[in-house]
Target: tRNA N(3)-cytidine methyltransferase
Amino acid sequence: MTSLQRKGLQARVLSSEEEEKLKRDQTLVSDFKQHKLEQEAQKNWDLFYKRNSTNFFKDRHWTTREFEELRSCREFEDQKLTMLEAGCGVGNCLFPLLEEDPNIFAYACDFSPRAVEYVKQNPLYDTERCKVFQCDLTKDDLLDHVPPGSVDIVMLIFVLSAVHPDKMHLVLENIYKVLKPGKSVLFRDYGLYDHAMLRFKAGSKLGENFYVRQDGTRSYFFTDGKMNGIQSLNVLFFVSVYLIALSLQGCLEKACNMCMRP
Model:
């Protein structure tokens, strides 16, 4: 059974205008288009990185502050840690962590081959400290790149929301195979009623709390119920989730944030 460390706040209350907007927006994208989006998911993320290069996301210097498990999982201060960042993008989380902590070795993977190449081209990329590779976490076996039961920490940050809800459990099954017994998965993602969810225009809805952006990339917004329902048939990933309110650049954002321990 998975144990959790929970921090944060419950979902904010919607205004009457926001409630009305969500009630009106019930028309789903056609099955044909939804199938096409699933088939072209990798292509759409690759085009995203082609358009935005390494400039879209800011470096994430908040990970050690928000996830104390990065420090507390050590038995002594200078203990070496092996980390996997599942869905590393262009390294906005990876490189700040490697700079801050010289005792981390990181595996990192992404759905987009272009994103992986950007990581390899970064001046901070050092094969002595990290190994990056392309991987579809829903079907490619992580064991092709990472030894079984070798990872102390898995970072799963703003990644699971981009996966079709029916395939999320496959991601968890995959990462479980490389995780050491009793170690942690650090998860952070969009929560229900995030402002990003309310900005979607009519015609963007794929399913309950699941939307498509204009560029074809998709995003799911998590609830307690959804996280309780995501489970691996083999490893019993029964999890719950909470919402954490963060003030980012003066704007209240919502994100799910948790630590999972199988």
Remarks:
- The chain has a mean pLDDT of 79.
- The longest strand covers residues 179-190.
